[in-house]
Amino acid sequence: MDLRRSMLFIPGNNPGMLQNGGVFGADSVILDLEDAVAPMEKDAARFLVAQALRTVDYGSSETVVRINPLDTFAAVDIKAIVPCCPDAILVPKVESAADIHQVAAMIAAAEKPDQTPVKIIALLETPCGIVEAYQIAKADPRVVALALGAEDYTAGLGAMRTKEGTEIFTARTIVINAAAAANVQSIDTPYTDANDEEGLLADTQLAKRLGFKGKLSINPRQIDVIHTVFNPSLNDIDWAQQVIHAIRKAEAEGSGVASLNGKMVDLPIVNRAERILHLAELLGLMGGEK
Amino acid sequence: MKNAIGREIPEAISGIAAIKPFSGAFAIVPEMTRQAPKVKTIKPADRKLVDSLVEVFKKIPVTDGMTLSFHHHFRNGDGVVNMVLATAAQLGLKNLTVALSSVFPVHAPIIEHVKNGVVTGLDTNYMSGPVAQAVSKGLFSKPVVLRTHGGRGRAIECGQLKIDVAFIAAPAADEYGNLNGVEGPAACGSLGYAFPDAQYADYVVAVTDYLGEYPLSPISISQTRVDYVVKVECVGDPKGIVSGTTRITKDPVGLKIAETAAKVIQATGLIKNGFAFQTGAGGASLATAAFVRKMMEKDSVVGSFALGGITGYMVDMLESGLFKKLIDVQGFDLEAIRSLATNPNHLEVGADFYASPFNAGCAVNQLDVVILGATEMDTDFNVNVVTGSDGVIMGGSGGHADAAAGAKVTIIVANLLRGRLPIIVDKVLTATTPGETIDVLVTERGVAVNPLRADLKEKFLAAGLPVKDIQELKQLAEKIAGAPKAVKTGEKIVAVVEYRDGTIIDVVRQVEG
Amino acid sequence: MASITKTAQAGTLESSDVMITVAPGNQGSGIVIELESIVLAQYGEDIKIILEKTMKEQGVTDIYIKAVDRGALDCTICARTLAALSRAGAVLKEAII
User: Dihedral, CA atoms, B299, B304, B310, B311, nearest 10 degrees?
Assistant: First the structure.
């Protein structure tokens, strides 16, 4: 299971940020060639990100590059970036399975023979993209996650973007559902007010409750809050351990049916418990360990 | 000879009295009595107000070879040092020593006075700008003495820095020589660094542009020590004296360091009622205070005092009940001045009270935690805050070595890489603060603990902090940036770096150019 | 052998960045480097080496390069140099991009 609680955007034409991108502990860093880079600097940023991928140690952070949209520089971005072995490409403004097919073909053409296949994360930020979410998610085995970009999406709706996010509720649930149906991750839109920690906390908690597995982030300061929300709580871990214990006990007793606190423990519950424990172990949150 | 931290110190340095090498932070036990200034009397009808500096120079009289002292609370807005030295030059005086607690870019005219022989000695705790650069290139024929804030107080008290005339830039004065820093157009807040000068100089001259009615209130420096009051047009430029609001850094790496530093402090267990804290006004230091504040608020901790250079941020913590007292030796902004003027829990103290090692107790000894910066640190934890990456002087200890010696836990916050330069080197170019007084280095890529503090290391590991060996951090930096070549310096000694106890911890050599 | 046809620039004067200007050199002039750096004492030689290496890898022989360095890492210096070369009309070798 790939951990993508937080995915941090790093401006692709800023050497200082590129060299320090790994210090913030984000699960993924997204080296951004799109919105963070002025049109005249696209070429320079491409060289910089390519060099950063080859030389900068991003530690345990997954390296993702957000390329430019298919109708602008996607092809040249992919050709330059893919041989530098990023873990994944974040494709903006994906609107259809065909878009993914096109990107996947370009990636395949650019990959070196011995290279670990580069994954695709599809950024859905238009009403069309939301409508096609499920088709996009299962368009290619390279696709590992759907991410929601709410700013452009809201503009596309003709709605006003608010902190409460009522206007993106439908898009959020569609993305989550489509991703779950296709067995990929769903990543929530960034919270854009970097100074509002309480707002970030509330928004991230909502995202987790709805079913997102992680959140995009536009500021390193947001990482801690996002992780705190997506980390399993001690109660979660406790509950999961009890579930597993109940199952083991039932198995040992040769009983096909386990129960916990009078409720039947069925397969989805076991799956959820296992996921929590796996995450907790990955994050070093289990008792007895640091 | 090598001193206790392995720095090569010449047996004798021309222009510097008997050299005692640094022998350990607390190794020197003083055996002496204090310096005693001239005893004065003044008759009931005598007046102190004089019309001009020239007149004061003649009345005292100021003669060749004297030591004139100044304080630096006006920072880069100071007009008094230049005014006084221009007077000295005008009167044809030679061979003066300037004892100015910190030198700023505004003090550039000193260079001409040195070239003309008016000034031949400089004694300071910090310098930046043209004078510092000129010193590094060999401006003076005898080395500049670089002290700590506490060490300057000690040197004055103990007669090692004997002041003939102290010129005190006074934002407000009355005609009988009572002074404070909280009124007048050049209000700067605390006058603490001038306290030892006023106490021990043979003559004390207040220079002001704001005369209040007698008796002035509050009184920071009193009439009993002030011989003359000179009213001038303008003592300084308020824009250079105080900053507006001090902002907390937005640099994400700085914030990451600050947040880690706050977690380090939390892990020491010292954030509890009675917590005593000092932090600088710059970059990651102030940001650390912001994170510490959150922790204090969350756990309803009421600290005892915050110390040092005071900013509006600290004032806000005082007023919010997070600290019971502020101990203020220097204020940085308008809020600090307002608070000092109005809040009885905001205490104005002198450099000696703040940090002198040779008295019956200074405030840094009461500190739990101090956050400090560094331009370089070596693998023995010795810190350089004097010379920059090009070997040129760009700072000085100020209170760095004092607070480090006093606090229970001393934390250096610094970028592991500043631009391309690794903070950790095998040997700092200039040692300012000895490693035995530094406990922790916090960088964006890990935390290094002084091997002398195994107790802390254990606590930090238990708290899940990213503790790394200092060698490991150094290698990490060099892996990213490459190993830096050492800066080449010349032979001539341009400054001696005095530890707070008066021993020599290092020397600064000339740079080319 | 790659060659450039005009003067071009890449990079900024921000901290950790470097501003590279390249201009065509006369035939036989060789690689002429003018370097300003805040870390000249510590890394001046390293910076010249990476500039020369980048030129040689691209087969550029006669060129004037001005680098105003604000503490950039080698990877940044290399990226900015390649960007400047590319903007100056050089056709870069695949492997380096």
Answer: 20
